[in-house]
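Q: What would this chain look like folded?
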Amino acid sequence: MLFQQTRIGKEGRPFIIHKFRTIPKGKSQSNAWGRLLRKTKLDELPQIINILKGEMTWVGPRPDVPGYADQLKGEDRIILTVKPGITGLASLKYRNEEQLLAQQSNPLQYNDEVIWPDKVRINKWYVQNRSWKLDLKIILHTLFMLSLDVDQYIQNATLKKKGAHQRARHF
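A: My prediction, written as structure tokens:
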């Protein structure tokens, strides 16, 4: 069964995202099948439809529901200059987002004050530094469920880039 929901895409345009339903209609929690689909990210597979329609790509910032991405201001709006992706760096860091939110006394507040701003930071960095090599790394880490310390990766890549820039200035 497919689940459809409005999400915000490139240039802040809304579109309908497709996913496999992981929570049966009329229920409030996933069953074993739904949990497996979510854990393996196979619930995202129908988004290939969105890729074929030109609304999404394989790698990029995840599209958010109205009220988040469409409210980005200033330099944060750079995230909306690219198509959203099925997977991305923020998706890798927050692979266990549901469990993380379930541990909070106020999940919505935690999302709004901690997770969302961090995803914006990560997605801005991705848009400013994206490459086919980085996309391949993200795809491999997603497909094989490999762990990646996203913050350490960003820090190392940023230091490496600064070092290369400084060496180039000396010539």
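The helical segments are 32-40, 48-52, 89-93, 97-102, 107-129, 132-143, 150-169.
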